[in-house]
Design goal:
Structural class: alpha/beta
Largest sheet: 12 strands, mixed
Shape: globular
Strand content: 15-25%
Helix content: 25-40%
Number of strands: 12
Order of helices and strands: EHEHEHEHHEHEHHEEEEEEH
Strand order of the largest sheet: 7-8-9-6-5-4-3-2-1-10-11-12
Bound molecules: S-adenosylmethionine
Distance between the termini: 27 Å
Radius of gyration: 19 Å
C-alpha cells in the first residue's frame, strides 16, 4: 500500500534519483559551458542509495529512475542498477541517459534490471546534434538505441526538447523516424531555469503549439491511463511509434505529479522548481535508520506545494536540470 500521500491527495509511487551532477554534454539550454565542479562533492554511494530506495519501497514507492547529470558516467552505474532492482517492492527501474555509452552496455544494463530507458536526442542531423549538445555523438547514440531494442528493454523512449529556430523544423523528420520504428518520442517543452532565461525567451515553444502541429498532421490524443505521468500521449494509424508531449506550462500539469526527487548528494526536493532541499543523507548511513528515514520523508510531504510557479518565472533554486535530474 502506498502511504506517500500529500495534502492535495497525490500519491507518490515514483522516485527520480540523481546519482551525479556531472555531465559530459554541454546542451545549450542546460550546461552550455559544461559541468563545473564546485567544492568537494561526494555523490551518494551505492550503500546510501540502497538504504534510500529500500526505505521508500517500504512506504509503497515502486518505480525508480536514475538520472543526473549523466548517470551512466558513474563507474558503479551497473552495480547501483543491480542493487536497486533487487530491492523488494521495486517493480520498475528506468534511466534517462544521453546514450553515449548505451551501444556497448545495453545488454549489461538490461541484465542489471533496468527495464525502461529514455535517450535524449535533440536532432537527427549530425551537425545540429553536435551544435546543440557540444558532442558529435549522433551515430553512437542512434546505435545505442538500436542496441537497446535488441537487448529487450520494455520501454524505450526518446526525449527531444523542441527549440524554436534551432530544431523545430525537424518535427517531420522525427515523425518519419517512428513511422516504422516502435519508439515513443517525448517532446519536452523547454523549461526556464535559473541560468537560461534569455535562451528560453528566444527558443521556447509552447506545448499547445506542438500539439496543434501534431493534430493538423492527423495525430490524435490517447486517453490518459490510470497512474500515468504528466505526458499527453498521441498516436497515428499510419505510424508504429507514439508521441508524448510533456508540457509543464499547461494547465493542471502538477495535478498528476506522482514523483519525488532526490539530488545526487541526498537532498529530497519536493518539486523540480521548488526552493531548497531537505537533507536526508544523515539518515542513509545504516539500515537501522529506516524508520526515522520513512517518518522524515512522510512528514516532509505535507510541505509539497500544489503547483510550480514557472508561469511567474519562479524557477526555484535549480540553476539547471543537470543539477537536479531532469
Ligand atoms: N544526461 C541525461 C540526458 O541527457 O538525458 C539525463 C539528465 S538530463 C537533465 C534529462 C533531460 O532533461 C534531457 O532529456 C534534457 O534534454 C532535459 N532538459 C535539460 N534541461 C532542460 C530544460 N531546461 N527544459 C527542458 N528539458 C530539459
Amino acid at each position: 500500500m502506498n502511504t506517500l500521500i500529500d495534502p492535495h491527495g497525490r500519491s507518490f509511487s515514483y522516485l527520480r534519483l540523481s546519482i551525479t551532477d556531472v555531465c559530459n554534454y554541454r546542451c545549450q539550454y542546460c550546461l552550455p559551458d559544461g559541468y563545473k565542479k564546485s567544492g568537494q562533492t561526494q555523490f551518494l554511494s551505492a550503500d546510501e542509495i540502497e538504504n534510500l530506495v529500500s526505505g521508500l519501497a517500504g512506504l509503497g514507492l515502486w518505480k525508480v529512475r536514475l538520472t543526473g547529470g549523466e548517470p551512466t558516467i558513474r563507474k558503479d552505474f551497473t552495480e547501483i542498477a543491480a542493487r536497486i532492482s533487487a530491492i523488494p517492492g521495486i517493480r520498475r527501474l528506468a534511466t534517462t541517459t544521453n546514450g553515449y555509452r548505451l551501444a556497448e552496455n545495453a545488454d549489461l544494463w538490461r541484465k542489471a534490471g533496468i527495464s525502461a530507458i529514455n535517450v535524449s536526442v535533440d536532432s537527427l542531423d549530425q551537425q545540429r546534434f553536435a551544435k546543440i549538445t557540444g558532442q558529435d555523438h549522433l551515430p553512437q547514440v542512434l546505435a545505442g538505441i538500436r542496441a537497446a531494442q535488441r537487448a529487450g528493454f520494455e520501454h524505450i523512449k526518446v526525449n527531444t526538447v523542441l527549440l524554436r529556430d534551432i530544431n523545430d523544423q525537424e518535427l517531420p523528420a522525427f515523425l518519419e523516424w517512428i513511422r516504422t520504428e516502435d519508439l515513443s518520442i517525448r517532446f519536452i517543452e523547454l523549461m526556464e531555469t535559473g541560468t537560461n532565461r534569455e535562451y528560453f525567451e528566444r527558443h521556447h515553444i509552447r506545448g499547445d503549439e506542438i500539439r496543434d502541429r501534431l493534430q493538423a498532421l492527423g495525430w490524435s490524443r490517447l486517453p490518459r491511463e490510470e497512474g500515468a505521468g504528466p505526458a499527453q500521449e498521441f498516436h497515428h494509424p499510419d505510424y508504429r511509434g507514439r508521441i508524448g508531449i510533456i508540457a509543464p506550462y499547461s494547465k493542471d500539469f502538477c495535478n498528476t505529479c506522482n514523483r519525488l526527487r532526490v539530488t545526487a548528494t541526498g537532498n529530497l526536493r519536493l518539486c523540480l522548481f521548488g526552493n531548497g532541499g531537505h537533507a536526508l543523507r544523515h539518515l542513509l548511513q545504516h539500515r537501522s535508520q529506516r524508520d526515522e528515514l520513512q517518518q522524515t520523508i512522510a512528514g516532509l510531504l505535507v510541505q509539497k506545494a500544489p503547483t510550480h510557479l514557472l508561469h511567474f518565472h519562479q524557477t526555484g533554486t535549480t540553476p539547471h536540470l543537470a543539477a537536479m535530474g531532469g
